Amino acid sequence: VEDKVIALLKKRHRVSPDDRSAIRSNNIFEHVDRFNKLFAAINSFLWFVGIGTLTAGIVGISNIMLITVKERTMEIGIRKALGATPNSIIRALLIESVLVTATAGYLGLVLGVGLLEGINALLTSSGAQMAYFKRPEVDFTIALTSIIILVSVGMLAGLAPAWRAARISPVEAMRG
After folding, report:
1. CB–CB of 144/45 below 8 Å?
2. Angle at Cα 149 formed by Cα 145 and Cα 152, nearest 5°?
3. For residues 150 and 101, is the Cβ–Cβ distance under 8 A?
4. N or C: which end of the chain has fewer CB within 10 A?
């Protein structure tokens, strides 16, 4: 429609059809499309940061659990010598991994909500009149989903060290 209107105006005002600067138009759709692309790029960046953070968390939890297994090798050996099954050792270490991840995730959530409340207080006290910054908040469903994902990832991160601990022979564990 835009091209037809411009062609009609050029014809009525006797402007050359090749002249692109005589009659201009402002298409709001182009601006909306530009903003949609900008927000899509921001959303992609946030996904990239989120996945990177989860990956760093997996590495961190795995390292913590590997150190835990290494430090508690003698304890694991004694438990196995007293009759502990590999499944009970794996279960104990996975519970520890989940506990560490859930605690860190919950503390991160509390700090994030606290930060948002601080920003809200700062915006309110400064008299900011921006409607989109009126009341920053955390969606409960997203927060709960994030905690579930974090705990699941933490459990997966603790699986390899737990499996390694379950394969330790009691004799070697007490020797070290």
Report:
1. no
2. 140
3. yes
4. N
Residue whose token pair is 């990832």: 153
pLDDT mean over 130-156: 82
Chain Cα centroid distance, residue 4: 47
Sign for the CA dihedral angle at 86, 59, 55, 151 comes to positive
Q: Report the largest interatomic distance among the alpha carbons of the chain, rounded to a whole angstrom.
A: 100
Taking the CB of residue 131, how many other CB atoms lie within 10 A of it? 7
Three-state secondary structure of 92-115? HHHHHHHHHHHHHHHHHHHHHHHH
pLDDT exceeds 70 at position 133: no
Question: What's the whole-model pTM score?
Answer: 0.67
Residues shown for the chain: 176
